[in-house]
Amino acid sequence: MLWVAALLIVASSIGQNDKTLKRKVAIGRFTNETQYGKGIFYDRDNDPMRKQALDILSAKLASSGKFILLERDGLEELVAEAGADMQKIGADYVILGSITKFGRKVEGDQRVFSSTKTQTVEAGVSIRLVEVASGLIIYSDEASGYAETSSKTTLGIGGTAGFDATLSDKAISAALSQLVENIINKCMDKPWRGYVLAVEDGNYIISGGKTQGITEGARFQLMKKGKMVNNPQTGMKIELPGTKMGTLTVTACIGDTPETEISFCSYDGTAIDTEKLLEYYIMEEN
């Protein structure tokens, strides 16, 4: 029976390692930078193409099962700032996107006994992924997508439909599909981070809860932030590796929504300065 016990231990270990802490992602805005469909009374906030792209991107990210999606409008000012101001967003990453190209055309082929009409739509999409903790753009790319449909009539019999409005959805979806996998990889490549919100009566209260994948008994490293230094080549600030202070063990999770969830932890390690909690962060154990 020893081999059975060994298998159970291995299976349990695999199950624990497969658990993924979901990243919080805010889709800050998605704009339509093309002139398509824009008239005198154009309303940017109610742009149907903008909403199409936002909904499609949200659905694709949600289907991966690796994210908690937070919709945040008007983040342009916050994205330009770094540090604590960015952390007020309440997300790990912010996605900014725009439709940069959109066109449609109809081509026909008329013959003696038949005619064919082909409708084609091309859409171009640009994406930027911003890491909230640093305020840096860690991924930027654009892609194009195409969609088409054809109808044929023979001796007057066959489809004569007008322009297929679903083609715009399909073209935008095709463009976004080329970018979503890279977005997922960039977000998941970086170690998950959380923060200590307060210390009360020996309990360490951290951000995040069950919807994010945090469970009772989960263990995290409590780290002190490394020194910030300037990179003379780029002029940008870089955070040096942090110092491990101790281990946090989750004892309870409370909260109803991703925005309000918190977890209570016990702590084993070097004493920290509870008056300067912003100098610390938590991360997954290796």
What does this structure look like?
- The protein has 286 residues and is of the alpha+beta class.
- The chain folds into two domains: 21-189, Rossmann fold (3-Layer(aba) Sandwich); 193-284, Thrombin, subunit H (Beta Barrel).
- The protein has five helices and 15 strands.
- Strands 7-15-10-13-14-9-8 form a seven-stranded antiparallel beta sheet, with no helix packed on it.
- Strand 4 and strand 5 form a beta hairpin.
- Residues 1-18 and 78-86 have low confidence and may be disordered.
Topology:
Blueprint: H1 2-18, E1 23-32, H2 48-63, E2 67-71, H3 76-79, H4 84-87, E3 93-110, E4 114-131, E5 136-154, E6 157-158, H5 166-189, E7 193-194, E8 196-200, E9 203-207, E10 219-224, E11 228-230, E12 237-239, E13 243-254, E14 262-269, E15 280-284
Parallel strand pairs: 1-2, 1-3
Antiparallel strand pairs: 3-4, 4-5, 5-6, 7-15, 8-9, 9-14, 10-13, 10-15, 11-12, 13-14
Helix pairs in contact: 2-5
Order of helices and strands: HEHEHHEEEEHEEEEEEEEE
Q: Considering the protein shown, what is the CATH homologous superfamily of the largest domain?
A: ABC-type transport auxiliary lipoprotein component
Q: At the first level of CATH, what is the class of the largest domain?
A: Alpha Beta
Q: What is the count of distinct domains?
A: 2
Measured by DSSP, the beta-strand proportion falls in: 35-45%
User: Using DSSP, what is the number of strands?
Assistant: 15
Keywords:
7-stranded antiparallel sheet, 6-stranded mixed sheet, Rossmann fold, alpha+beta, 286 residues, 2 domains, Thrombin, subunit H
